Amino acid sequence: MKTTLGIAFHGAARTVTGSRHLLTFGGRKLLFDCGLYQGRRDEADRINRTFRFDPAELDTVVISHAHIDHIGNLPSLVARGYAGPIHMTAATAELAAVLLADTAFLMQKDLEHVNKRRGGRPERKPLFTMADVEETLTRVVKHGYHEVFEPLPGVRARYDDAGHILGSAITTFEFAANGRTRRVCMGGDLGRPARPILRDPETPAAPEVLVLESTYGDRLHSDDDATVEGLVAIVNKTVARGGRVVVPAFAVGRTQELVAMLHPLIEAKRIPDVPIFVDSPMARNATAVFVHHPECFDEETFRAFHEEDGAPFGFRRLRYIGSPDESRALNDRKDPCIIISASGMCEGGRVLHHLQHALGNAKNTVLFVGYQGEGTLGRRLRDGAETVNVYGEPCTVRAEIAALDGFSAHADQRELLEWVGSFATPPRTIFLVHGDLAPAEVLAKLLRERTGATVHIPELGQEFDLWE
Ligand SMILES: [Zn+2]
């Protein structure tokens, strides 16, 4: 039988969000990831409502990890007629339940807010509802790392640990074509070696075709010491001014990593013992997911679980904020504190009211610990905007704006090159996705030099035939 393989890039092409890649194996269609595109509201809404394929015609869906830019549009897919299974790792499944429900909730809140201001114009409709989320979760099929499963007849798939967030995976598809075994590796988002909590990214069997992220294709992260010293300086300076540190952060992973760094610094009295609030309705749930999946941890963290009664990385030091009233009450506090709140790119969620409250006061610091996509409020703040709109109202930025990139859960240029170099034989073809064009071009040049591979940076909607 003749097997053709095609790949089409329907998201995260020359940008970092909205991952959706369509693989076709001899006429059968497999969607890899179905993420939300995040950016300016109107543009994001249009992109997220547009599928360049018919969801009802997909045969299967395979997911790399639970970040919203990889799973966040699954409920739309289901609402628009996709009726098949959705494959993911067990930890991703548990996180997805928390995160998709949270996304539907935040969308509903945001919409109520927007619709109030639309005057006579027609009301906006939500992208999807909680009922769509519930329906989506019934389709989930869980897999362990290294387990081989068949998402399509004749196509074997296997997840290896990507070390990026809890449950994150590198996915390899293997199938026979013209008497030969072919492999395509979907790198997903690639983590970093030697980081706290998670295991290092694994190296799967060598693929001929690799789809690789390029978020930091042109950059090296600061080393750990510089990150720790930066954090010490920022916290001490802000506390000395009597201000608060507001950290826009995604509540899964980054929060735990940040606390894992703050906890020993407080113990060693290098920074004062100020309260740390994690203000996200889902943070407690997300932490519970962490506690349920010690199989994802590196050895050191796994040991800490047993030695510290299931409370590693200073979880006990955190104070979780549940209700909206408690959240607003944080604005009345006079003493210095650290507030970690989602969303990480300031595109919604409770961090917005913390920013509205904190930005106007020069005592405070807004600390970015994650990537800020183009067009997001986080990027405008990080780029030094003097005034920004929060909840549609202008807000003068007097607070200090700081950024530490050493927390990144994405491999930097050197780590990406080393990981590609760890395959037994180099890939023949590499597609770079999940990165703005400039970093992707820098990485593409280096990969061509070092591996001899043909490297493409696909445009949105571009399709390629891989084998006849
Ligand atoms: Zn990710």
TrEMBL record:
CDD domains in the record: TTHA0252-CPSF-like_MBL-fold
Family matches, as InterPro entries: Beta_Casp, MBL, Metallo-B-lactamas, RibonucZ/Hydroxyglut_hydro, RMMBL
Locate the transmembrane regions by residue number.
Answer: none
**The keyword Nucleotide-binding belongs to this UniProt entry's keyword annotation:** no
- Residue stretches making up the Beta-Casp domain: 255-381
UniProt keyword annotations, A-Z: Hydrolase
A Pfam family this chain is assigned to: Beta-Casp
Question: Which one of the record's GO molecular function terms can you name?
Answer: hydrolase activity
Q: Where is the Metallo-beta-lactamase domain?
A: 17-250
What is the name of the protein in this document? MBL fold metallo-hydrolase
Query: What organism is this sequence from?
Result: Eiseniibacteriota bacterium
